[in-house]
Amino acid sequence: MAQDTHIDTSPGGQRALIALGANAASPAGVPEATLRAAMARIEALGTGARHSRLWRSPAFPVGSGPDFVNAATAIETELGAEALLAALHEIEAEFGRERRTRWGPRSLDLDLLALGDLLCPDLAGWSLWRDLPLDRQAREAPDRLVLPHPRLQDRGFVLLPLSEVAPDWRHPVTGFDVLAMRDALPPAAREGLEPLG
Questions:
Q1: Which of 49, 88, 114, 166 could, after both became Cys, cross-link 110 (CB 3.0–4.6 A)?
Q2: Are 50 and 74 in contact, with CB atoms under 8 Å apart?
Q3: 14-195 in CATH: which number?
Q4: Which one, of 194, 174, 196, lies nearest residue 184 by Cα?
Q5: pTM for the whole thing?
């Protein structure tokens, strides 16, 4: 188990893991075009970018909108977590993202999944959001950054693309790497997921 809080103060960049998703048109066009354009913008935030294939996945929760196109990107960045999140929100806005309805259709969704082995705000805060019941997840959002993303280990549409760009990243709380988390997914979490090429 990880300690309550860990902030990497080592010199140089840290690996940032970012999930991308879209299920509505943006100024760049259809979701596939949007994700490719957003990947190019994310590259400017660091070095050594690695991008997954594009994946099609059913909207979550089921029936909440058109199918999504998902992907993942890993970069080395000098940016801190808050600055990186702000930059990702700026990219979302460039592609027409409006935050109206939680889990509604969106032109671009960029989730900061992890930054190195940073755990924030602390173990108790992270655990609170990880264990939040589904009905509350639909209504509530954290008022601060929570890293790693508290439900990345449960989501096939995150872990399948992520396994292509950061298979060795290890969760600072559970100790499992991405491949182990992907392989532990129940069949329902993989249902409807397929690479687009």
A1: 88
A2: yes
A3: 3.30.70.560
A4: 174
A5: 0.87
